[in-house]
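Structure first, sequence second, as always.
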């Protein structure tokens, strides 16, 4: 069988959205530096910008390591 297990499939699906709360973000750059897919760039103030959303695998590494809880990776809902 060539299908991956359900948990492997969901880990590699693109998220519905990657949200940055700029009111919470202090522009530390952790999300930019730690993203294994290089999804983020920085704007002129050093804040993260989602530059390559199609490259995101929804691993949520950025979300888990943000000290200000400013990143939200919105995962797709499983279709029943």
């Amino acid at each position: 069988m060539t299908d991956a297990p359900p948990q492997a499939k969901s880990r590699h699906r693109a998220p519905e959205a990657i949200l940055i709360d700029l009111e919470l973000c202090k522009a530390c750059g952790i999300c930019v530096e730690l993203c294994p897919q290089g999804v983020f760039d920085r704007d002129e103030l050093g804040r993260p910008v989602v530059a390559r959303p199609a490259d995101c695998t929804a691993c949520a590494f950025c979300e888990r390591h943000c000290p200000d809880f400013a990143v939200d990776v919105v995962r797709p809902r499983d279709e029943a």
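Margin note: Confidence is low (pLDDT under 50) at residues 4-10.
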